[in-house]
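lol ok so funny story. i was supposed to be doing the assay writeup but got distracted and ended up predicting the structure for this chain instead. priorities right. anyway since i did it might as well share w the group, maybe its usefull for someone
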Amino acid sequence: MAAEPVVIEDSGLPPALIEGAMKAFAQMRRRREWPQRFGATPPSVHHLWQGKRIVSAGNTLYQLDPNESWYGFLYGLLIEQLGGEWIDAENAKPYGRRHILARWYFDIYLRERDEQGNFTRFDPDHDVGATHAFRSVAYDVFCMMQAMNLPEKLIARLKHPDQFEGARYELWVAATLARAGFSIEFADEDDRSSKHGEGIATHPESGKKYWIEAKRKHRPFFDYLQAMIDKVMLKVDAKLVAAAMQKPADDERLIFIDVNRPPWDRSDIDAPWIPAFRKSLSQLEQQTRFQDAPELNAFVIVTNHPYHFLSNVRPDPRQHFFSTAFNKPGLKWASFETDHPDVHALMRSITDHFAIPEDFLEKVGD
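and the output, tada:
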C-alpha cells in the first residue's frame, strides 16, 4: 500500500532542504505561468553565483551587480545594442538636440539610478511617459534577442533621427509577433528591385504565412503644441492602408497601422480617432479600385503609442489598439476565432501579453 503524502513543512526534513524544495517549486510555478502572462518569448536564465548576478538574453550571458534590477538589465541591453560611444556622443549634446532615446535614457538615469549606480529606485507610482517609452523599447529588444532575431539594420535605423518613428514601430510589431509565437523572416532592406513589406510571419502550429506591413503616421515633431493642435483638428484617415495595399503580397496580408496621436486619457471606446479611422477605412473600401479587386484585402491592427508626446513629468499615458479588416465583406466576426484562429490568437496576445515583467523570473535571493 502506498504511503500517504505528507505536507513538506510537517515532514521532519532538514530546514535547508525544505527551503530549497519550496524555492524550486516556486520557480517551477513562475516558469509555468510566464507564457500566460508574457507570451511565447522565454524568460532569461538567471543565477546568483559568487556575489554576481548572471543573466541571459538570446545566446549571451551577462554578469551584473547582484543589486541591479531587472529594468536596469533591460536598459543595459538597449544601450549595448545602440553602442556606448553613440549614447556618450548624444549625451554630450544639449538636451534638446539629443536623439529622443538619449533624452529618455537621461530621464530614467535621473529617476531610477541609486547612489551605487544601479537602477533600483523604480517606483510604479511615479512612472512617467519617458520611463515607459525607453523601457518598452528595451523590452522589445530583449524579446527579439530571445527570439534570436534582432536585425542589426533595425537597430541602426532606431539610431537615425529621421527613421526612428518607423523603426520603433517595426520593432514593436516584430516583438509583438514573437510574443504571440510567430516566427519572422525579415525582408531584405537593401532590395530596391520591388516594393516589399517588413517580412513574412509564420504561425508555429498551422504553418500559415502572413505578409506583414507596419506603417506609422509621420509627425514633424513631438511637443505639447503639436498635441494641442491634433486634439483640435481631428484628421485621421486610412491612407496608410491604401499605401500598404500597393505592395505585392503572396500571402494573407496583416497590416499594422499606428495613428501616432497624442494620448487619450479616457477609455478605449471614447478615443475619437477610433471611429474616425473606421469611417475613413470604410470609405476607402468603397473605392472602385478595391471593389474590383477582392484579392486586395487584409487584416488590420490599428494602434496608438503616444509616449513621445510626453515630457518627463507627465504620467504613463494609455495606449490603444483595435483590430479590424479591410475589403473582407464576407468576414464573420461572430465566428472569427474558429475561421481565423491564428489572427485571433495574435489579437488575444496583444491584449494578454502587453505588460512588461517587473522583475527577474527568479526573485532576489532565490
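Residues 227 and 262 are 5 Å apart (CA to CA). Strands lie at 46-49, 52-57, 60-64, 183-186, 199-202, 209-216, 252-258, 298-304, 320-326.
back to the writeup now i swear
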